[in-house]
Design brief:
This protein is an alpha/beta fold and 640 residues long. 55% of the residues lie in helices and 14% in strands. The strands form 3 sheets. An 8-stranded mixed β-barrel has the order 8-9-11-12-13-14-15-16, surrounded by 7 helices. A 5-stranded mixed sheet has the order 4-5-3-6-7, with helices on both faces. It has a two-stranded antiparallel ribbon with strand order 1-2. The N and C termini lie far apart (107 Å). 37% of the residues are buried. The structure holds ligand C2E and calcium ion (CA) (2 copies). The site of one calcium ion (CA) has 4 residues, from loops.
């Protein structure tokens, strides 16, 4: 029977188009994607050799023909091994340990040894004197190897079936299927390249369905994004996997984007990637958020990780002094590892949240992961449960901190602050449980609880009879994103029969600058109903002035870190900064509240700067409802 070259030709054309398509597409250097490309190349070589050696009948030289046939089989099993590694990576989302890899690669070594000895023994095949291929008595060994790979693939898929994405679930079972049908066809129709063809079909499927690199890149950036990070690295963070990493948080990223053209930042990112790649090739880099980068070491080698970390800090220093950017890049970097410091993706996120707390400093910082006080998943779940039961058992309480009006020399407003106790009766700081509640719908329940309590106090205690104007209520970003925020608030006001002017909503700088569409709509609706807003924590984010001006704000609250800085350090700069933070909003018509005023000296200085309102321990700590009402009825603030 004549050998049919058409399946070979089809395979070759398909594989070449795949390689071209891969070149045209933005190439993702995902480990998985590289595996596919390498598998395509090997399969292409294998098919070419098959075509030349069987289809082309190039020569009758027995040794040359034998070598080419052997090469064909080696390439074939190499392509199989790649497919198995690919399956394994897809299932486990990372490359297996060395021992498992040996399982995939051992058959190739076996094949090479077999083929070397087979030249004389002619166990599996032989080349006749006329240059023809002939099956040997043990050719079935090859079929056994096919089945071996089919078995490994099936085992991996069955074991990891729960972890598979939908695309993977449809596609990956094709691997054992391809091995088996390919083998059967090869047996039934030895005169065509069935195995090559079936493998080509599979690789084409993988390529077109799953290789979608653009999904894995942050907009315009050369770096892979958060999705890529989670897909590729989730399994690297668990109590029993060892991974070395570096996290970088750029403090003034938003400011950089606003003041420097975006291209120059992307260029700086490019330099960063290139410099680090020059230093070590075995790195994965992700931009998981604006200004937040994570570097994952491919191997668990502490010394190497330390070196990369030092180099990273060096690059950050160079970037902060670079003359290419008109303002310096301030950042915090931290080297950490799994499972020592983090043991889940969620903890990685907590680590970044902890790094963000360093955002006030104009500096390049490095922090030790040990000092970040990261909460474990168990701790997070415990706090979540605590909030839930506190909500159900009415164990949440609202405290009120009076705010001093410097013109009337009286308390005319207050801020409502939530308090929660744990099972032993100790307070859990809101800075701990609010961010956790914000990750679920719990924050909505907390928000509506606080608003209800506030409205109840205002109406039951008739606070307006004492020249008291309004209570400030903190509204979290998650609440600002609810489309029914406005109607819910209005319903509560109506229920307690209080006026919109008796409350004021505090939004933070970050919530004001993110997700502008929905937040704007909510603010506008509430503003139209006469509810006022203040901007909390002013000075800690980088909202643009034009954005702030576009919001209908009544008050700007200067963050306590800015207010306290000149009184903690003797550095003149912090006073200049504070003056500007107060002056700018006043000059455009906002009223200003200074937070965190703890001494008489501070109060006097702050009044000189022109702040209309002062909030802080000097006048009063946050008080229980009873204490607060007493204080407002008396209304005799400390002297200034
Ligand atoms: P915040 O909105 O900036 O609230 C001001 C914080 O500063 C309060 O901390 C207050 O107790 C504290 N403070 C007031 N005066 C001074 C002072 O003179 N010195 C110092 N060192 N601190 C002072 P608190 O009550 O622990 O609340 C922390 C944060 O938790 C709040 O920061 C706010 O972001 C959040 N939070 C509190 N209650 C609520 C709430 O009902 N809803 C939401 N979404 N967040 C809340
Ligand atoms: Ca506040
Ligand atoms: Ca604040």
């Amino acid at each position: 029977m004549e050998y049919s070259i058409w399946l070979d030709v089809c395979s070759i054309l398909t594989l070449i188009s795949l390689i071209l398509a891969n070149r045209i597409k933005k190439t993702a250097s995902l480990y998985r994607n590289n595996l596919v490309l390498q598998a395509i190349l090997i399969l292409l070589l294998n098919t070419l050799v098959d075509l030349i050696v069987i289809g082309g009948r190039i020569s009758t030289n027995r040794f040359l023909l034998y070598s080419l046939h052997s090469l064909k089989y080696i390439l074939m099993y190499a392509a199989f091994a790649y497919m198995i590694v690919y399956t394994s990576v897809a299932v486990n989302r990372r490359i297996h340990g060395r021992n498992i890899l040996k399982l995939f690669i051992a058959p190739i070594i076996f094949i090479v040894t077999l083929l070397l000895s087979n030249y004389n023994t002619e166990f599996v095949f032989s080349i006749t004197a006329g240059g023809f291929f002939e099956y040997g008595p043990y050719f079935a060994i090859f079929y056994c190897l096919d089945l071996y790979y089919a078995a490994i693939a099936s085992f991996l898929l069955l074991r990891g079936r729960q972890a598979l994405s939908r695309n993977h679930k449809i596609l990956l079972p094709a691997i054992p299927f391809i091995f088996i049908t390919g083998t059967v066809f090869d047996y039934l129709f030895p005169m065509a390249a069935s195995l090559q063809f079936t493998s080509t079909i599979f690789i084409t499927l993988v390529f077109s369905y799953m290789q979608n690199p653009s999904e894995y890149y942050s907009d315009d950036s050369l770096m892979m994004n958060r999705d890529a990070f989670i897909t590729m690295c989730e399994s690297r963070f668990s109590p029993d996997s060892h991974t070395q990493c570096i996290a970088i948080n750029i403090h003034n990223f938003d400011l950089l984007v606003k003041t420097v053209e975006k291209n120059r930042i992307l260029h700086a990112e490019g330099i960063f990637i290139k410099s680090l790649k020059q230093f070590s090739k075995k790195l994965l880099m992700f931009k998981i958020n604006n200004g937040q980068y994570i570097i994952i070491m491919d191997e668990n080698n502490e010394t190497e990780a330390r070196l990369v970390y030092e180099e990273t800090c060096n690059i950050m220093k160079i970037l902060s002094n670079s003359t290419r950017l008109s303002i310096p890049v301030y950042s915090t970097s931290c080297a950490f590892s799994s499972p020592k410091h983090v043991s889940s993706i969620r903890m990685v996120e907590n680590l970044f949240a902890a790094l963000k707390l360093y955002e006030n400093s104009d500096n390049i910082l490095t922090v030790e992961a040990e000092n970040l006080n990261l909460k474990s998943d168990a701790e997070i779940v415990r706090i979540e449960e605590l909030v839930k039961t506190a909500l159900n058992d009415n164990r949440l309480e609202v405290y009120f901190q009076p705010i001093y009006n410097t013109e009337k020399k009286k308390f005319t407003s207050a801020e409502a602050l939530i308090r929660m106790r744990d099972d032993e009766g100790n307070f859990v700081p809101p800075d701990i449980f609010i961010p956790i509640a914000e990750k679920s719908s719990l924050i909505i329940d907390i928000g509506s609880f606080v608003l209800n309590e506030v409205c109840r106090v205002i109406s039951e205690e008739h606070l307006s009879d004492y020249d008291f104007e309004y209570i400030e209520v903190n509204v979290s970003m998650v609440e600002c994103l609810q489309s029914n925020l406005a109607s819910n608030i209005m319903a509560v006001l109506k229920q307690h029969r209080i006026f919109p002017s008796q409350i004021n909503l505090e939004i933070t700088e970050t919530s004001a600058s993110e997700f502008t569409d929905i937040v704007d709509k909510n603010i506008k609706t509430l503003y139209d109903k006469n509810i006022t807003f203040s901007l909390d924590d002013f000075g800690t984010g980088y909202s643009s002035l034009s954005r702030i001006l576009s919001l209908p704000l009544k008050l700007i609250k200067i963050d306590k870190s800015i207010v306290q800085a000149p009184f903690i350090s003797t550095d003149e700069k912090s006073m200049i900064l504070l003056k500007n933070f107060v002056k700018t909003p006043i000059s455009v018509g906002f009223e200003v509240v200074a937070e965190g005023v703890e001494t008489r000296e501070m109060a006097r200085e702050i009044i000189k700067l022109g702040c209309k309102y002062i909030q802080g321990y000097y006048f009063s700590k946050p008080l229980t409802r009873t204490e607060f009402v007493k204080m407002i009825k008396l209304n005799q603030p400390a002297e200034v």
